Every structure is written in structure tokens, then in C-alpha cells.
Amino acid sequence: MTQRSVLIIYTGGTIGMLADPRTGALRPMDLAHLEEQVPELDRMNVRLGSESFETPIDSSDMRPADWVRIARIIGKHYEAYDGFVVLHGSDTMAYTASALSFLLQGLNKPVILTGSQLPIGTIRTDAKENLITAIEVAAACDEQGRVRVPEVAVYFEYSLYRGNRTVKVHAERFEAFRSPNYPRLAEAGVHLKYDGAATLPFRAGQLKVHDRMNDNVGVIRLFPGIRAEWVRHALSTPGLKAVVLTTFGSGNGPTDPVFISALREATERGITVVNATQCFGGRVEQGRYTTSQAFVELGVLSASDMTVEAAVTKLMFLLGQGLGAKELGAAFGTSLAGEITT
After folding, report:
1. What pLDDT does 19 receive?
2. Model pTM above 0.85
3. Range list of β-strands (E), 12-77
4. Annotated catalytic residue: which of 2, 11, 14, 341?
5. 4-209: CATH class
6. Architecture of domain 217-332 in CATH?
7. 11 catalytic, yes or no?
């Protein structure tokens, strides 16, 4: 079989850190020495290339401009490699994976994000298995030579998930991610078992890398007793274009007239309001109960079974394309990269 090629893109995060033997402090690892830490890479029959951010970024500091930067790197090397592995901190990995799924329009090669809970030089690290399997997935093809996973995905602790369906669910366990509303794309055990029915179909055509995102998006998490005036103040933020309202259960919220009035004022100013559930699993069903009927009347958009991470990044992407409120509403409810069940 022809040797496959994978580009490793290091952005930062625990997976690329090494402990200083004298002080114990963590410092970024030179990717040129990656094979010293993971000698198994020599036996994979995969041609590896690497590119790194000049200054590694903790994922908590990741911004939309950095998502665009990663997308541009992939676009620059797209024809030269069969797949891509993005090494990334786990804290905001679901946001980056979601953003990349929208920025890389027409993607038909694997872009696999992975990281670790422990640094790669630690004896009990999960980094080696995550890295090796992510590379294997990025290089995988079937008997006809077609890639197995032509989409953005997250690999963590024996499971491969669609990137824009993932959420981080644990700060300490190696099984840090879940995909509550969508099945795994693959499971790693003695064999790598792919679920071809769950994977996006191969998309013919050229890759288009988008390079604009509008970060004038907010998130308001509802809680019992939330003050309507605080909501009104948040919705009055200068430049705000859209807000994700994380609601209870199947999309419910307070019926307090002052709270509803604050939302009405925002929508009348042209602010797009999205209703996303706080629950990890399930979907928003606006109008099912009286506590969400007002959202329907106000024209609040339903996130359905999208994650909050996907909803936020999708809004930033659509606003970055210059869509008006009506166009944005139609596009938001449309599946762009398998992020929503329609």
C-alpha cells in the first residue's frame, strides 16, 4: 500500500509539554524531538510532517483568530498530506473542533484533534495512545483508497467523535469527552472499528477555507432567580450581534414579564437569540411547554440538539459571512457539517 502522509499541527496544550527534570515545571516540547518521546511512530509506515505555533497557546487563551490560523495551515498544506492531526489543549478543544468544521468548507480529508490529560513525558500519560491512534485515524483509508473519516473529529481515550458534537465532561479522567447526541465515529480496541454510517459522506470538490469570524456573540446561562435587569444589561453590550441563551430541560425559561421584555427589546434591536439546552443530552423543543412558548413568539432560534460549543462557533461563522438576521436564521437551522439533526 502507498505510504500515507499526515501533518501534525501543534498549537499548545498538555500533550506537547515536558516536565523539567530539575524543577518539575512544564515547558513546551520541540516537535523535532517528538519521536524521542514516542518511538512507536517509526513503525507506523506514515510519513509525518509537523508545523507548530511559534508560541504555544493554552487552550483557555484560544480565540477565533487562532481557529482561522489553524484552518489556514490546513489549507496551505491540504494537497501535500492525506490527513491532519491537531494537538490542542482539552479545555476548549470542542470549540476549536466545531469552528474548524465550519471554516473548512468542502473538507474531504481527516482533521483529527487530540490532546491529553497528562504530559507526554509522564510515565502514566494518555498522550502516547491518543497521538498514535489519532495519526492512524488520519491516515486510514478503505480498500478502495478512500479516507475513513473525511471530517473534523476529536479522538480521546479509545473513542473518535464528530468534532462539532463533542463536549468536555471531566477535568481529571482520561475519558474526558462525550458526544451525547451522536454516535461515535470509531472505537479503538484490539481493532479500530469505524462506523461508516455515522461518518459524513465524502464530498467531492475543492476545499474552501473561510477566514472570517465575528466574535460579537455572548452566552447567558439561566439559573433560578436570575435577575431580568442583569439579562437586560448583558443584552445591551455594545456591538452584540447574537446570544446563546442556555435554558432548562427541553428549552424552558422564566415566564417573568420583565425577563421576556428584555429579550423582546434585544430581538427588536436585531440581536439574534438562540435557545440551547444546558443538558448534555437531548434537544430543545420550543413551545412544548408554556415556559418556552414566549421564545417561539419572539422568534428565538432553536439550537435543537446542537452543543453550546457548536452553537456559539456557528453563530460566529455565520455572522462572519455577513448574513443578515433572516438569512442567519435560515442558515442556523441548516446542517453545515453534521452539527445538528435536521
Report:
1. 63
2. yes
3. 17-19, 26-28, 46-52
4. 14
5. alpha beta
6. 3-Layer(aba) Sandwich (3.40)
7. no
